Amino acid sequence: MSGADTAPSFLKPAVALPFLLVALIWGSTWFVITGQIGAVPASWSVAWRFALATPAMFLVAIAMRKSLKLGKAGQLLAFAVGLTQFCGNYNFVYRAEMHLTSGIVAVMIGLLLVPNAILARVLLKQPITLRFAVGSLIAIGGLALLLLHEAHEAPLGGKVVLGTVFALIAMMCASVSNVIQANDTGRALPMVSLLSWAMLYGTICDVLLALVFAGPPVIPHDARYWMGTAYLAILGSVVTFPLYYTLIRQLGAGKAAYNGVAVIVIAMFISTLFEGYRWSPLAIAGAGLATVGLVVALMSRSPSR
Question: Which residue blocks in 127-252 are alpha helix, DSSP H?
Answer without folding.
Answer: 130-153, 160-180, 184-187, 191-214, 223-230, 240-251
